[in-house]
Design brief:
The structure holds 2 protein chains of 2 kinds. Chain A is an alpha+beta fold. Chain A is built from 8 helices and 9 strands. Chain A folds into 2 domains: 114 residues, Immunoglobulins (Immunoglobulin-like); 188 residues. In chain A, helix 2 crosses helix 8 and helix 6 packs antiparallel against helix 7. The chains are: A alpha+beta, B mainly alpha.
């Protein structure tokens, strides 16, 4: 009786949810990553500073150009500092807001720097109550030409402008980086493909091992479908990376960039897997040899993509030792979009692979008649 | 007929030149040398998204062709 009631409670038309929930989830996650990835604004930041070099004992009008900033909406005056180190900083004597995106700060550079060096490098910090604070690290060079360098006088002059009462903007924003600016969003449209590719290749290799241990052809078909989708994702990752590289590194293909070249080699190995498959007429032979080949290709990919780039320096973030994403490169707000994107694209890849697999099974049935 | 062809060619060439002129006028508007790097390099993101869709569509075309082949084989049986 209870079982009957329960079966009546489930409407017939929602039965597809039980079978296809992962496809729906994948599509929803991809739509989510596209929406948030494109619509969430970047944090207010500074895109340029002029002049980039100064001399001691003279006055300057520094022009600051902001990005996504609204300087006219600040209640209090916008404050600007030149930060020398953790204890030495110089406050702007006067700041003037020109418009939402530009700012002029007057600086009277003291006669001495708090150091004996001829050239000091300072960071610029801009703070107000509406936009929060933004920092441009090590950007302005200050030259001291005087022969009689006085560290004590310099130190006391640079201690006048204490940095304090800093505002932070508590909103859901992606971080602003000068070199990347809006292209930081490519994290959701380029990197997830590499993660998904890796997961899908792992799925493919488990099917290959399954074929070798059971000798059932369906495992071979599954392995082939997963490998095909993984290769497609690799090609997407490479092409999207090339466009991103053109505008960050200045060239579509950098032969010095180890990760790029190693990925190309790994993808060529995987492409040769498909050529190998086409060269056999006997199903059993093709399945066995391609299963062994895919295991070797996977081992080669691990070495090329995850071992070699860690041993040499690379243009990718966190170069020299760790080419993957470090803690500094990934903000919490970005994780919220990045991880769902990986899951979404992986599920979509499994869906694509299942289509190829089903087609392959149909073809098999056709030839059996 | 021949005249029709000529007018078609003319309109096609006008269309083509318009297509090529469009980005340059946009560059003039943004006052930037590099179209891709204008407006905070947002067009790079668009380019990346377009590439994703192009590759996925190529994959769909491949699937479509293989399915058609299969359908033809079923019909032949």
């Amino acid at each position: 009786m209870i079982r009957f009631c329960l079966s009546n409670l489930k409407p017939r038309k929602f039965i597809f949810m039980r079978k296809y929930w992962w496809k729906i989830l994948g599509v929803i996650l991809i739509i989510y990553s596209f929406t948030l990835g494109l619509l969430v604004p970047l944090k207010p930041g500074i895109s340029s500073i002029d002049p980039g070099s100064m001399r001691t004992a003279s006055s300057y009008q520094m022009e600051i150009v902001g990005y996504n900033t609204f300087y006219t909406r600040a209640q209090d005056a916008v404050r600007v500092w030149l930060k020398y180190d953790s204890i030495h900083a110089l406050a702007a004597s006067k700041t003037r807001v020109v418009n939402d995106r530009s700012l002029v700060a007057d600086f009277d550079i003291p006669k001495y720097l708090p150091t004996n060096d001829r050239v000091g490098v300072v960071s610029v910090i801009v703070d107000d109550d509406y936009n929060g604070f933004s920092v441009v690290p090590s950007t302005v060079f200050i030259t001291q030409d005087s022969v009689d360098k006085d560290i004590v006088a310099g130190s006391s002059a640079w201690k006048q402008g204490r940095i304090g009462n800093i505002h932070s903007k508590d909103q859901f924003n992606f971080p602003f980086r000068v070199q990347l600016s809006e292209t930081i969003r490519n994290l959701y449209f380029h990197v997830p493909f590499w993660f998904s590719m890796f997961i899908i290749f792992i799925a493919g290799i488990t099917q290959s091992i399954g074929y070798l241990s059971t000798n059932k052809l369906e495992y071979d078909y599954k392995s082939m479908s997963f490998t095909l989708v993984g290769t497609v994702f690799g090609i997407i990752g490479l092409c999207t990376g090339m466009i991103w590289a053109k505008d960050t590194w200045g060239t579509y293909w950098s032969w010095q960039e180890v990760k790029m070249n190693m990925t190309a080699i790994a993808l060529l190995i995987y492409l040769s897997y498909f050529i190998l498959r086409h060269s056999f007429d006997d199903d059993e032979r093709r399945a066995r040899i391609s299963a062994v080949f895919s295991i070797f290709a996977f081992a080669a990919m691990i070495a090329l993509l995850y071992v070699v780039p860690r041993m040499v320096s690379s243009l990718h973030p966190g170069s020299g030792g760790n080419p993957a994403l470090g803690a500094d490169d990934l903000d919490n707000s970005m994780r919220l979009v990045f991880y769902p994107a990986i899951i979404g694209w992986t599920l979509l890849g499994v869906w694509m692979a299942s289509l190829i697999y089903r087609m392959q099974v149909l073809r098999d049935k056709l030839y059996d008649y | 007929m021949a005249r029709n062809m000529i007018t078609m060619k003319k309109s096609f060439s006008i269309l083509l030149s318009l297509l090529f002129l469009l980005p340059t006028s946009l560059i003039a508007q943004t006052n930037n040398q590099d179209f891709m790097r204008s407006i905070g390099k947002m067009y790079v993101v668009y380019g990346v998204i377009i590439v994703i869709f192009i590759v996925l569509i190529i994959f769909l075309i491949y699937l479509d062709r293989r399915l058609t082949k299969l359908e033809n084989q079923i019909q032949d049986k």
